[in-house]
Amino acid sequence: MPEMTPSVLTMGEPAGIGGELTLKAWVDFRDQLPAFFTLDDPEGLRAIARSLNWDIPITAIDEPGEALRIFNDALPVMPLREDARAVSGAPGTASARAVLESIERAVEFTRSGQAHAMITNPIQKETLYDAGFGFPGHTEYLAELVGGGMRPVMMLASPSLRVVPLTVHVPLRKALDALTTEAIVEQGKLVITALRQDFGIATPRLAVAGLNPHAGENGKLGDEDRSVILPAIKALAAPGVEVIGPVPPDALFTPRARQKYDAALCMYHDQALIPIKALDFDQAVNVTLGLPIVRTSPDHGTALDIAGKGLADPSSLVCSIRMAANISASRLAFKST
Questions:
Q1: In a 3-state reduction of DSSP, which class is residue 130?
Q2: H-only helix segments in 30-152
Q3: Residue 251, SS3 per DSSP
Q4: CA-CA distances (angstroms) from residue 322 to 145, 183, 186, 228, 315?
Q5: Could you say which DSSP state residue 327 is in?
Q6: pLDDT tens sequence across 7-30
Q7: Is CB count within 10 Å lower at the N or C end of the chain?
Q8: Residues in contact with 110: Cβ distance below 8 Å, sequence separation at least 6, in sequence order
Q9: pTM score over 0.85
Q10: Cβ atoms of residues 47 and 63 within 8 Å
Q11: Any bridge partners for residue 77, and if so which?
Q12: Is domain 153-288 classified as CATH 3.40.50.150?
């Protein structure tokens, strides 16, 4: 794991469980995790800790490197410039600018090498939309911040499964309209590259999901599997990589099937997210592929209904911190080969 730089956590929605997750991750797992700091409001975090009777030392820092020195003794927090005050469970647009500042500065620190990766706590998209935010979510905003015209891709990864949806936050009808051979090939190539450089898999195995029941039954239950997906699979075939499919969606995620591939490329959002959340909700991590920086995130939302109650489970955040460090190390090793 990278040891010379910390990772950086964003604040996320301050009315949600992000602050509790960060506090719990540090107090319960700091001896098992690489050093990190968070871009947040120190007083806000202290208030959360006091309200829950948690005795957690918090130290404000000015530079990312300070986190390495103090991490074992206190949670390092780099204060935000914008007002991040919020009431647990009651999000509002007043803190929207602080939410975005946390993301933007985390990108800056990661791009400059002062942090080896960024981990984003969940945001409340509806609140940001109300404040004028013009992106569907984190992934698209991060692509804009890093520039280069790249098309970011969302992977959900856990110990038992890796899945990538072809489309993300769009209505299902529009997602089906976006299903093209070219899109599948483009995304499949990116996933194969990520399996090699981010996960250290020298000979990747990619499964491509079918769209229709029974993968279309040779066109009898829909022609997309035969006319759109199969040509993409043939185009992705190359030395040193195994591509299988289209695999009937109802058979793709059985225990036996999962042993045959390293990642599954799915045709729309829920086809990918339902199985991984059913199999491994607490340990699933959102990984953004296709960026020049490493970014991971817990695979859950802001949980406004339990915010401020001390009930939030930090498991996915802890897995996100570990995976970010592992991906950073894998990329370094890949570049050296």
A1: helix
A2: 42-51, 66-70, 96-112, 125-130, 138-146
A3: coil
A4: 24, 31, 28, 37, 11
A5: H
A6: 999 999 999 999 999 999 999 999
A7: C
A8: 8, 116, 117, 118, 293, 294, 295
A9: yes
A10: no
A11: 38, 60
A12: no
